[in-house]
Amino acid sequence: MRREALREAFRTATGRHAEAAAYAPGRVNLIGEHTDYNEGFVLPAAVDRGVALVGRRVHGDTFALHAVDLADHCEFSRNSLARDPQHPWADYFKGVCWALSRRGIELPVCEAAVTGDIPQGAGLSSSAAYEVATVLLLRSLGGWELSRTDVAHVAREAENGFVGVACGIMDQMASTFGERGRVLLLDCRSLAHETVAIPPGLKIVVVNSGIRHSLASSEYNRRRAECEEGVRLLAASLPRVASLRDVAPADLARLQPTLPPVVRQRCRHVVSENARVREAVAAMHSSDTARLKALMAASHESLRANYQVSCPELDILVELASPLPYCHGARLTGAGFGGSTVNLVEEGAVESFARVMLTGYRERAGREAEIHVFEPSAGASVL
Ligand code: GLA
To answer: Of all helices (H) and strands (E), which one includes residue 175?
Structure first.
C-alpha cells in the first residue's frame, strides 16, 4: 500500500500532515461458503491488496473525508450520520462512526483520506477492508482501547446496521487476523481461530468473472432466511440445535424428508460444507493436494446445485480450471451470484493458467476475465 503517496495526497488535499494511518486487506475464501452466518467454519486468507486511510483530528463536529481515487470529497456531522446517495463511498466510514457511537465510544472528529487497490465488486471484501481500516484509524486518533476481535465486530455492525448488508463475520475477521503465507481457520460461533500454511509451491489465483447480479443481496438474505427455517424445523426433533452448525450429517440425512425441498437443499449445503472445511484443513496439514482439489470441487458443486448461488459464468471458470493438471482446486469464492473463483495453482504454471482461463472464458462466455495472483497476507494494522 502506498502509504507515503496517501500521506502526500492528504497533505495536498488539506494542507496539513496526517497524524495517524491505518491499512486493512481484502480477503479470499478458500472453502467454507455461506457457513459464517450459520455459526460454522470458514477458511479465508487476507490478500495483499486492501484499503488505507490517513487522518488528523479537527475541532468541531464535522468530519471531512477525501476519496483520493475518486477525487471526491464530502463532509458530515457526527450528530447526523446518514447514508448519502451522492457519496456512497463515504457510507462505510459513516457506518463505522455510527457503530462506534452506538457502543458509547466518543468519536474523534477528523479529516481523513481513503485510497485502495483491492478490486471492487469482485467478491474480495473491499467494503470489509474499508470498514476495518476505518475502525483502526479512529481508534488511533481517539486513543481508546478496542480489541482486535471488537474491531472486526464494529466493522460488521457498520455493514449490517448502517450500510444495510446482512453479512456474516468472515470478511472482517479475515481482514483483521490474516497472517502472511497462511489461511485462517475460523470458528464463526466462538470466533476461535488458528492459521494453516498453504501447501508449498501453490499460489492463490483469483479469476474475476466480471459479473455482478443485481439480485445478489436480496438472494443472500433469502438464503439466510431459508437456513433459519431449516434450524426451526430441525430443532423440533433436535432440541439442542441452535444453528445449522449443530446439525450432524447423519441427523440431517435422517431428518431431511421432513424438510421442504428448498430448505433441505440449503441445509445439505451448509452441513456438508462445514465438514469439508475441517477436511480441507487436514488435507492442507498433510499437503494432500488431490484431496484438497476434490473438496473444493465438491464445495462448488454444492454451491451450484444445493445452495444455488453460482451462475453460468462462474461454472465456466470452474470447468476450464478443473482439468488443468497444475490447478489443485477451483471453486466460486464469496457470496456468489457472480464475482470470482479461487484457484490453487502451481507456482511455475500461473502464466499458463492465466492464458488458458482468459482465452477459454472469452470463447465460452464472450467476456473478459480478470486474473489476480494473491499472497496470503498479514491482517490490518496502523501504519
Ligand atoms: C459474503 C459475506 C460473508 C459470507 C460470504 C459467503 O462475502 O460478506 O459474510 O457470508 O458472502 O460465504
So the answer is: helix 170-177
